[in-house]
Amino acid sequence: MFRWIRAAALAAAVAAFVPAAFASFACAASLGDDGLHKEDWFSVTFRDVAEDIEAARAEGKRLVLVFEQRGCIYCAKMHEQLLSDPEVADFIKAHFKVVQYNMFGDEEVTDLDGEVLTEKTAARKWGYVFTPTLVFMPDDVPESVSAGKAAVATMPGAFGKWTFLNMFRWVYEKGYEGDEHFQKYHARIIQELRESGRLQGE
To answer: Does the record carry Signal as a key word (predicted)?
Structure first.
């Protein structure tokens, strides 16, 4: 009798766990034909930077471009450890429109100055050599300037959760227009997290 009860309890636990596990996998980034990780909330556009800035603004958001490449272990880390974190993903989804670029891709890109490029020639023109590189665009479309020069901030590489998330928060709050440099802003937020008990040791 007790064996039957234990078996029934185990079966119930497994039944409860399996859907949750599959739901977790369902939310994970998928790998595209180009070898890049894909979040289902990334925006698929024609990569006209001016149009994308306007589209983001119409949604009450900011535009961020993310350069990645096939086989990039740091890109994988960004997706698996950072963008899979609900606190990080929810903030970005609420405030930013994210458009993915392939560092060595051939898809057409229209720069803010009107020049038609490919993803790989855009990366060269704008001076990006690391993946991932996140490029934060202004909330208004500037005139006669390339996207590389118009960017209000760039973040090359995959960092820890709070550096990553705080950069998005700093840009959203337009910290680049004020006197508090990002590093000062980040240090202040880390101290506040420590004092609140949410962070230990970072």
So the answer is: yes
